[in-house]
Amino acid sequence: MSHLALLSQSMDNHRSNSNSNKNSGLVPEDPAALVQELGQSLDVQLTLKKMSSLCLIILDKRLFIDTMTNFIGLTDEPEKVDFTFSTFASKGVLRLTGMGNMSELKEELICLSSMMKLFNGYLLSDCSSLTLVFPMKSFFS
Length: 141
Hints:
Structural class: alpha+beta
């Protein structure tokens, strides 16, 4: 099964689970723990530069890990992908840099964008980076 088909299947499963439950499955998660788990699923060492440690991002952890594992696995050198987490305007911003073949991943970017919509967030991308903008939960709220 192609990576695109796996991404679509993961998202379809999430949609059907969300539709059958009133609970959307979106929960606050620590970005550092997510990046660590993502690295383990890819069997590479990923690093996260954390500019803010006072908030969590709101998402469906399993869908995020599965989708990002498939996506990053398609990049030229997954071990060179760098993550930076920051906050901006009450949003959690996870930026991925170091991906050389972003222009070849157009269909996969559409899947990522759809995933982010499920999380009430959005995606920005250019030729070598990806920015995922999530709702966030502050430790002060």
